[in-house]
Amino acid sequence: xxxxxxxxxxxxxxxxxxxxxxxxxxxxxxxxxxxxxxxxxxxxxxxxxxxxxxxxxxxxxxxxxxxxxxxxxxxxxxxxxxxxxxxxxxxxxxxxxxxxxxxxxxxxxxxxxxxxxxxxxxxxxxxxxxxxxxxxxxxxxxxxxxxxxxxxxxxxxxxxxxxxxxxxxxxxxxxxxxxxxxxxxxxxxxxxxxxxxxxxxxxxxxxxxxxxxxxxxxxxxxxxxxxxxxxxxxxxxxxxxxxxxxxxxxxxxxx
Length: 255
Description:
Strand content: 15-25%
Strand order of the largest sheet: 1-2-4-3-5-6
Order of helices and strands: HHEEEHEHEHEHEHEHH
Helix content: 25-40%
CATH superfamily: Alpha/Beta hydrolase fold, catalytic domain
Radius of gyration: 18 Å
Distance between the termini: 61 Å
Oligomer: single chain
CATH architecture: 3-Layer(aba) Sandwich
Number of strands: 8
């Protein structure tokens, strides 16, 4: 009985939070990307006013494991309000795909003490890359200002995209992510601002810290913000950093 009541309460809270932010969420158009027999739900935020002949940045946002599904709603819960709130000051396109339940942005063993880079890209992340390419073809997007950010499972996805698509991204901001140290020399030239709580037990802080050190050793200059005595929810602080958007949108792809 207690379990049933708990489920009801959690469902009510989730519904309340979603409804309370519905005004912001409505700015994100609902779409489904179809490629062959595969499909990927996604939401799209557009600039409030688009000037003729002007091109705009594109931000790819990768959600965490708790927001997986096919409802095309849950992926908006964490982090995306920042872009809705700042769309007037920083006009851009923001695409937020939703990874299906039972899959990951990076199909790796999360229980492994040291991240191991999988040989193949996951299907949801491949579809995300194809989706971004289709948006660049259909919309007035500046191909030299493509950015990627993500949280937890999505932070891992950020590193995977940088590794698999060198030269595509102008800057990246993974939050509580991690990756195989061997990719460090391959992503060192991408402007990077990573965030992590030093008491994170879900995505171990040490894995991200060691990756940042490896990128430094390879000749990169990553920016790494560490939140003392913080667990896994680094996104609550990362996306409130006063310089975050200014830093992100200041970068252009290196030719």
